[in-house]
Input
Amino acid sequence: MQSQQELVSILDAIEMGKYKSAYTMASKSIKKNKDSPVLKAMLAYASERTGRQKEALQLCSELLALRPPLVDDLSLQLLQQTLRYCRRGQDVVTLYANASQAMPYSLEYATHHFMSLVRVGDLKQQQMVALRMQKQFKENKYFFWAVTAIYLQGVNATPGAPNIFFPLAEKMLQKAVEEKRFTHFEEVYLYMLVLDSQKKYLACVKLLSSELATSLCKVESELKQLVLKYMHMAEQTDSVIELCREGLRETPDDWRVYVTYVEALYQYIVEQSDEPVSNAKDTQELKDARKFLADLQNSEPSSKGKGPFLGEMELLLKFEMVEELVGCLSQYFQKFGATISFFEDVKRYLAHVPAESREAFVAGLSQLAVQAESDEILAIRKRINLHKVKYCVTSFFSEKDTQKFIDELMVEYNAGLELGKDLKSTERQHGDDCVVIAALLLLDQFQSDRKNKHLLYHAILILETGLQKSVHNFQMKIMLIRLYAYLGVSQPVVTHSLSLDVKQVLLDTLTYIYGEDFEYYAPIDVAEQVAKKPLQIYTSNEKETPEMLIQAFKFSTYSKIPEFHRFQKRLSDSIQQAISKRQIANTNVILLSKGNKAKDLATYLQDLKSEDFNISDARIDALQDNRDLTVGISWKAGGKSFFEVYAGAEFPKSQNAWLRHYGALPVILKSWLAGTPVEPSLLAPFNGLTDEENLGLCLVRDLSSAVGASNADEPILSRLQTNLNSLNQRITNLDSFESSKQIYKYFEALVYARIASSLLPKKLGPGFIGKLEGILQQFMDYLMALHATVSEPSVEKMKQDWVYSEKLPLMVDDALVKNVLASVQSSRKSFLMSMVNHLG
Amino acid sequence: MSFLRRFTADDLFSFNNINLDPLTETYNISFYLGYLAQWPDYFVMAQSASEARMGYIMGKAEGDGELWHGHVAPEYRRMQLAKRLMDVLEHISDKMYNAYFVDLFVRESNSVAIGMYTQFGYSIYRTVLGYYSGSGDSENAYDMRKALPRDKLKKSIIPLKHPVKPEDLEW
Output
């Protein structure tokens, strides 16, 4: 027997985080007490914490195999922790399934068993265990756990196939109502979800209007909203209209109710009567609706609120009464034109102002904008809103008009600066939007003159100037990041993206802004760091979200459990995660491809999990795109967002082909290392790819298709030489993302050829390396020649060449121009030198 | 123009324009989902007509005896919106949780927010020293409170004379 003192000492060491000491003590003790489960559990824990995972897992498996099973609390806890650290969730399930079976009256072990099933996402077993718990411990809570598990199985069921889960859950809940098991509104919410999933909207209304729901729901307004929602979905138009009116009389600023009201009216007047929408204007119902809204507009206190006015515009839009809509827009500007959210409020209606009357419309608003406001800030806000409207509805500005408009905007901006002298740094300057519109105007010009990169530099200078005065304006930062990226300038992309402070879940939704294709124009080590950063959030998702699901079960928050499941899946199947993993793998392969790192490359490829990269087309297609595109400004009526305008193409672009290519690549290299034939399915994504599109991948494909065959040297070398000659001719200076990308692609091809020379000795003869080195040297000479062309133009020359408006120099200072120039120059030089250093 | 609704886990993917604001902190997954798991109706999102997320407010009920209160963490910029969100949370603290008061923490330097909460009926109850401490910087917080109808004598808002340290906070 081990002494109690020994156990206490080991446990103390564990609790204090002295794992080495715990390991030493436990190893010593176990020699005297070979069969002690608690010692084994302690040793397993200490082993894992000191990096001896294999040893820990061996001990765990011995303890899991014990019969009768382990039932002491301390051993179970230690083992559970150890297994969780080792990511052996299924073994934790077995651990507590055994303990619970051995001690069926232990609520603690049964709960642990259930929660271990939540962690691994085994819904069927959750259902079984919860039902068993309900039977054993007679608590309603476990009944609802079981129903939740059934409901979630329904959510996960194959679409289109018969779904037995929802009807089963409904039947159980129906019975539970009769048996008076409901004690919390969250249980009613679960019932509502079950009905909703079967499109039983009327039943939802009935449930939510029942005494059960009203007695359990403590927030009356929430219940009302739910009733209205389902009534609308059930197309109970009469009642919806009535309920909306009632709701709006109480809270005339609830936008959602206006939308429902208008939709219900449309259903009632047009869809259910087969009347053309043009006839709707004269119907009594519409006249009543307009009168209702007019009354709301005139009643106190809603005359001060925007709701009834916007509600009217929504109604006019739906019923295609454009002429009156335009009139309402003008009135709305007069009344609310000085509010911050004015433009956001009316943007959706501005697109419907007829093209032929837009000029007159803007002229009309201009008259209203000059009317005096009570203070200067309100007046400037109103004028800026007018500028935004003008930009929004004007589909084309000539070069001259653009210049004139920018001049006006700059005057406005400077006036705003005067008023904002005392603003805190966390506040935006009043005229920030003028800077943004000015930049957008330049980008619109760029759209029709894509060779004129001066326009982009001009936009950058304006935005950088604005940012100096409004250091936290994230819209300016995002625009700058993309403009620099388009020009292939990496350093300011890093600086501005760091200042956005993208972290936690934002890493999934916003990384694309600076991370997409970053490796094509940044130094390799910097690109690797940027690619690695978002992975934190996926690790957090694996660790934290299951624990939060457990919390939701513990607090019986059934409405949140399906949400948390969806959240977990959205992150685990995130497209950004797939992109980042591939970027990291590729940059790692490149960084380890130097001759002196052959061993490291071999270890990296051996450890690489093929299943993370070699995923089916169906899985790629099903990846979740959580990237938030709404942060790209879209102020042009019916026009493109900023992202599309500067890029002249889709942004972020579809990555499906890229994901296939760069998912297959590391797995192919792994096969090269192992000397095994490359599976044809891995090469399938490369079919049809040409050397011009991606020389590196084509070389990898061709070298893989006949591993073992020889005499590939000459064709490979000849293709590398031909492409280098072509590159030499095509790109004589580095001036954009596109040129950087082409150079980088060629660099990649050389790297893969170099890896092939060491991993495929049978395929490539002994003379290959020597000849390859010759081409490498030529490429490095080419890079150095490009490096020499990257020189710093003078500030004066830049202003002369790049500045579009003569007014700009007054606003943009020379130091800023110099900084921008320096960052362009040094980014390009470091990109080129990074490749030279790597190959040298 | 906006409407208020329950905050959902999916909102974490679309609240970027709010969280990119320098005065809004972005926390880890457990923080948001923890609030949602325990106080689902105490976490409210304001969404605009164009579906943009405008602001949100998180709340929880905590404390013992007469210190039973609603604690809110508001994230928004516009005053009118702020008022609506705060009203909802105060209503929930009162009706649903039967709390004595509502409190919130604000940076000592954030005079804009302090002025706004004062207008909403909040007053500074105490200073919490070095409450906001990040990479190298440290700032005091004001713990601002507003009494709810249950605290008839408004005992909960009588200001403390001395500042407290974060470790002295009750919860």
